[in-house]
Amino acid sequence: MNFVYNHLHFRSEDPDAAAKFYCDNFGAKITSERPLSTTKSIQLELNGHHLMTISGRAEGEDPVPGSNEPRYGLDHFGFEVDDMEEAAAHLHANNANFICEPWTMPSGSMVAFIEAPDHVSVEIIQRPKA
Question: Which of 12, 42, 63, 102 is the most exposed place for a label (fewest CB within 10 A)?
Answer without folding.
Answer: 63
